[in-house]
Design goal:
The chain is an alpha+beta fold. It is about 40% helix and about 10% strand.
Length: about 575
């Protein structure tokens, strides 16, 4: 019975295949194989033997050499060989393979488990001969479409290759232009260096007489400044002596705490009396001060408050019945001390005192509220009236007084001429020096491009200076070859640097298929960002996709003619082979 089943299966297979060299093939066996292993040397990569091994006139030897069986056992739906080679047309062996001839389209090899499983795997329907899958032979239609698609891709590949040749030509041209430009810039830089040296010498020559002429002005300015400082110091010490005499009630040459506490001027917290702490503060934490120590340590602390108090006090009018006592002066606010310059000029000090005085007056109660007539004894400054008077003066005169007065020349005529000559020499030197620096920067930039790897034939050089964008739902990505890769949100501002140009990272033999951009901005609590650019053949330089397979690691898909190789000839041999299978 087993022999009859095997014979019927073989006959069914033999009736559906062509004869090649008068050799019949069981179902699932290819006409030939690509592998070079001989009979008994093991299975080929497809797992199938040549048709000549399946000779119905003799016993079948398992292709792995493990044994032999009667030929009637081939395709009998029972696995006899360990390598499954006796069941190429059934699903009996788990490690077997089934060959789809697919006449008119590409042949296909399947695991034997997919034979008669109800799924149409072979376009010629040969894998479902015993099932009810109702598969149709669509190989000719699929083959025609596949050949048309292959022809289209081949044309695109050929166009990309032609564009690559143009990129190579353009790259070599740019390299030669850069070489010529470098030579030109080197000559210009040599000339510019010579000019700068000349201008530097002229500047030194012009600055020598200027320096001598200005020395007398510097000496005069120093002497004038020293004189002004001496006058200011003398005035300062005179004020200190006058204040000391005023505060030293018993004229014993010592300023004591009791004398300080008797002066309402030093009631800094405005509680109605001068405490020991307040008195000691102005005495620089001493019990008493002599005139010398008062000038050096006490007066710098007292001066702002004392002078403001003196400015606020005016003698009573003649209509007043009794003048208010000196000690009942208005209480000043807490002092603000400037210890950087104890000899502050009157104008500078007056400005601070006026501000403090205005704040103090604003904080005092109105005369009508407390019923006191003391406020009448003080002249309240009318700022509005002063401002109004100033405005009227400016309106009456066409030009302010400051503008009417011509600025006096800073130097005499001869000195000014020397300064002008030196300034002109400095300007010429600065211009020459700037020219040298500009040429040096441009030269360095060009020299860097000459050592950069733009591909084996300079095919990638034309990408330098260009940028390519790709936008998805959230971000716009930008790739600037040999520069950087960035990410920018569509709704928002700011740009994130994903990496700077690093190196070519393709595998050996295909080095220029990938670019690595590293040392981007660091992710929060993570590594620095990087971008791996995969380059494939295309008819244009275009960024076609971006993904982030790992955190902070981006993959850019970029097409370029630069990686397109010369396409193979039309595969006529494969077409002939297909027709032979028919």
């Amino acid at each position: 019975m087993r022999g009859l089943i095997a014979f019927s299966l073989f006959c069914a297979a033999a009736g559906s295949v062509v004869r090649a060299a008068q050799v019949l093939r069981p179902r699932g066996v290819p006409l030939s194989r690509v592998a070079t292993q001989g009979r008994g040397q093991g299975r080929d990569p497809s797992g199938l033997g040549e048709a000549s091994f399946y000779d119905p006139s003799r016993d079948f030897s398992c292709l792995d050499g493990s044994g032999s069986i009667p030929f009637s056992y081939v395709n009998d739906d029972y696995c006899d060989c360990q390598d499954g080679s006796d069941e190429p047309g059934t699903a009996a062996c788990p490690n077997g393979f089934f060959h789809c001839t697919n006449a008119g389209h590409a042949p296909l090899t399947l695991p034997s488990s997919r034979v008669n499983d109800g799924v149409c795997d072979c376009c010629d329907a040969s894998d479902e001969y015993a099932s009810s899958a109702n598969c149709l032979d669509v190989c000719r239609e699929l083959g025609r479409a596949a050949r048309e698609e292959a022809a289209k891709k081949r044309e695109e590949h050929l166009e990309g290759y032609q564009l690559r040749q143009a990129m190579i030509e353009d790259g070599h041209k740019r390299k030669k232009e850069a070489e010529s430009k470098i030579e030109e810039l080197q000559k210009e830089k040599e000339e510019a260096d010579t000019v700068r040296t000349e201008k530097e010498e002229l500047k030194k020559v012009a600055e020598e007489p200027e320096k001598e002429a200005l020395e007398k002005y510097r000496t005069a300015d120093s002497e004038k400044k020293a004189e002004e400082n001496a006058q200011q110091k003398e005035k300062y010490e005179g004020e200190a002596r006058e204040a000391f005499a005023h505060l030293d009630n018993n004229a014993d040459g010592l300023l004591s705490m009791e004398e300080m506490m008797s002066r309402q001027t030093f009631d800094t917290n405005r509680d109605g009396q001068v405490s020991e702490e307040e008195a000691k503060f102005y005495l620089n934490q001493e019990e008493t001060l002599t005139l010398d120590t008062f000038i050096s340590t006490g007066w710098p602390l007292m001066r702002p408050v004392y002078r403001m108090d003196q400015r606020m006090f005016t003698p009573p009018s003649t209509t007043t019945a009794a003048p208010p006592p000196m000690e009942e002066e208005l209480t000043p606010p807490p002092p603000v001390f400037d210890e950087e310059d104890p000899y502050m000029s009157d104008d500078e000090l007056d400005e601070e005192e006026e501000e403090e005085m205005e704040e103090n007056l604003d904080s005092q109660p109105d005369a009508e509220d407390d019923g006191s007539d003391d406020a009448e004894d003080y002249d309240m400054p009318d700022e509005d009236s002063d401002d109004k008077d100033d405005e009227e003066e400016e309106e009456e005169g066409d030009v302010p007084k400051e503008e009417e007065e011509e600025e006096e020349p800073k130097y005499d005529e001869d000195t000014q001429k020397l300064v002008d000559v030196a300034n002109a020499a400095r300007g010429q030197f600065d211009e020459a020096d700037r020219r040298v620096r500009d040429l040096t920067r441009e030269l360095r930039s060009l020299e860097e491009t000459q050592v950069k790897d733009y591909g084996s034939e300079e095919e990638f050089r034309v990408l330098e200076g260009n940028c390519y964008d790709y936008t998805d739902r959230e971000y716009t990505y930008r790739l600037c070859p040999f520069d950087k890769a960035t990410q920018r949100p569509k709704s928002g501002h700011g740009e994130t640097r994903l990496g700077q140009w690093g190196e070519w990272s393709g595998q050996e033999g295909d080095k220029y298929s990938r670019m690595l951009y590293s040392n981007g901005q660091a992710c929060w609590n993570g590594p620095t960002r990087s971008a791996d650019v995969h380059i494939s053949c295309g008819t244009e330089n275009k960024l076609v996709g971006v993904s982030e397979p790992n955190r902070c690691e981006y993959v850019f898909l970029f097409t370029s003619p630069a990686v397109c190789t010369k396409p193979e000839e039309d595969p006529s041999e494969e077409t002939a082979h297909t027709h032979t299978e028919l």
